[in-house]
């Protein structure tokens, strides 16, 4: 069963753009895709309501793949590169897909 993880990242004031650039340069999502076969895709999103808030949303083929990512040495190696931007510890949640709809082409 597919699941979605949602990671909330509060960065130091005025550091969101730099943090987003570092995230992309570090290839966080690309490395996840390379390391975890059950990673189906992800996005880094910038809050429109809060200039110091970012979210990472990722789709997984199941909870086991998400847990594999949490324990991955690739993820552990990414942490120090991004931690310098964080004003507080990240907050995450795992969501079970209950219903979805895609717009027609």
What's the SSE blueprint?
Blueprint: E1 3-10, H1 16-26, H2 28-35, E2 39-46, E3 53-60, H3 63-70, H4 73-83, E4 91-96
Antiparallel strand pairs: 1-3, 1-4, 2-3
Descriptive report:
By secondary structure, this protein is an alpha+beta fold. The protein has one domain: Alpha-Beta Plaits. A 4-stranded antiparallel beta sheet has the order 2-3-1-4. The radius of gyration is 14 Å and the shape is globular. It is 36% helix and 29% strand. The two termini are 25 Å apart.
Describe the structure using short key phrases.
globular; alpha+beta; Alpha-Beta Plaits
Kindly provide the name of the CATH class: Alpha Beta
Please report the distance between the alpha carbons of the first and last residues.
25 Å
Q: What characterizes the major β-sheet?
A: 4 strands, antiparallel
How much strand? Answer: 25-35%
Instruction: List the uncertain runs.
Output: none
**What is CATH's topology name?**
Alpha-Beta Plaits
Question: Secondary-structure element sequence?
Answer: EHHEEHHE
- So what's the oligomer here? single chain
Instruction: Assign the structural class, choosing from mainly alpha, mainly beta, alpha/beta, alpha+beta, or little secondary structure.
Output: alpha+beta
Total number of strands: 4
| Total of helices | 4
Physical arrangement of strands within the biggest beta sheet: 2-3-1-4
Overall CATH architecture: 2-Layer Sandwich
Number of domains: 1
What is the residue-mean pLDDT, rounded to a whole number?
96
Pfam families: ABM (PF03992)
Domain ABM: 3-94
Protein name: ABM domain-containing protein
Organism: Verticiella sediminum
């Amino acid at each position: 069963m597919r699941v979605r993880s949602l990671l909330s990242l509060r960065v130091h004031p005025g550091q969101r753009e730099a943090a987003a650039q570092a995230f992309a340069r570090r290839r966080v999502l690309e490395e996840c895709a390379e390391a975890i076969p059950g990673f189906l895709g992800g996005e880094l999103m910038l809050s429109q309501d809060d200039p110091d808030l970012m979210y990472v949303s990722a789709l997984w083929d199941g909870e086991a793949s998400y847990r594999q990512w949490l324990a991955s040495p690739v993820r552990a190696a990414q942490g120090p590169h991004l931690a310098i931007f964080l004003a507080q510890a990240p907050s995450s949640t795992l969501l079970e897909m209950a219903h979805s709809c895609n717009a027609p082409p």
